[in-house]
Amino acid sequence: MDTSSTCATETIASPLPGVGTGLLSVPPLPASASLDPSLAAGASSWLDTYVAYASTVCPMLPPLFHESAALWLASVAVARRLYVSISGRPIYPDLFVAWIVPNGLYETAAAFDLVRDLAERAFPGLLAPSHITPLDLLYLFAGCLGPREGWGRWERTYDGNQQDDHFPAQRGWLLGDLSRLLPTRRAFHSRGLGLLVDFYQCHPRYRYATNPLGFLTVPNTYLSLLSCATPASIAGSLSDRALWDLGWWPSFALIVPEPGRPAWQLPAPTPEPPAHLPTLVRLFQKLPGNGQPDHYRPCQVELAPGVAAAWLRYQRALAYDLLTPDLDARLWNAYCQLPVQLIKVATLLAALDWVASLPPDPPPAPKTRGRAKPQDVPAPEDGPGDRPTITLPHLARAQSIVEAWRASLHRALAAGRAAASGDLDARLSARILRQIEKHEPAGATARDVYHNLADRKPSEIAARLAQLVTLGLVETIPGPDLPGPGGPTTYYRVAR
User: Fold this and answer.
1) Model pLDDT for residues 177-219, shown as the tens digit of each residue
2) What is the reported pTM?
3) Domain of residue 219, residue span
4) 336 & 474 share domain
């Protein structure tokens, strides 16, 4: 797979029509930290199968999006039962993914429905409701509906779903509009984002103080989020330095299309691959802890020789070597999170290959007449062969994926900046037109237009007024030729 982020400079075309963003610098990865892309051959054939199938069903959406969706599905199936102990702390493979594309053109809705359908068939009990506030998500993770008025205690949920009972705080969340979570005038949203970041960081024991019901404790938090947004809807939030410092945007893989307009393609009717759904179901079922709450315990992923050293080189490159004054300060925290995302993706690739290597399940035992005697279900064994192993091919492919995410991260900043500037231009244009309309039908002079626009520079207003004339939205009419020096005054009116 091509690591597109190794080029030093990338020309970024805004996904918004008519808005250019110029040149965007993407620092090249040092050669000492770069793995040979040829090593990635053969790592996770299931991922290739999913991307090929999804690209046939939704061909307008680039493969980078389908690839992130497949990894998100695998992260939900893991449900916090795998971790890598490296650099002194455990890393669990949950993912935050945001697709940032303009409305239409890319068929994101169809691709999103494809992911939702597969997740609901594979593990419906692991999915959080699509429409839920962050605080209600906290109650869901705690296995309760929230405080019941007059009872003085938390009311428990009884959904009857085994996955809900055994994995209450290990969830996947499909959110069609990411902008619903972003800060508004209500301060609750800012606190809600901090809550979601804590869930993403997989706190072993999250405690929430309530009044007057004391503490609400959520053990073993784990949240994987797949969401969509348009550049315009999150432009202001992408520019907000506080959200980068909070760790909100650095937690995400921000997936933005590459420059250029996609070629027109029609979806082709393609049957679902035979291993499409069973692989996800087996991954969920074969990891320890499924079916018996007492057996839930995370399993440490093995590292093949050379993997830890290669990861540490990548960590040094992203968290130290590339953090220079030339890099946008908002990206410093995001760059430090990229090595974490690398080991998360490598864990998921290893888990998919591990479950594919397991022998087929034996046929179910025939049913006997009468009432079956209850039997104790033994806890799953934890031997060396009963856990995934991250190899150098897994790490090499994960690096190509995360490096593509790094280039997309820079495109996201450019798209947000272009959307923000376009929004400002639209507001300024509307204000100029309103000033001109006040002087209809005689027309307004430039001085009349400047009136009540003292917050904008005259040169900026004049430039935008000239653009409106060029676009045909405003027309000029000559004024009377009065005696004295200078030519006639130019008047502006809304084009008829």
Assistant:
1) 998 888 754 444 557 888 899 999 998 888 887 665 567 888 8
2) 0.78
3) 4-358+384-421
4) no
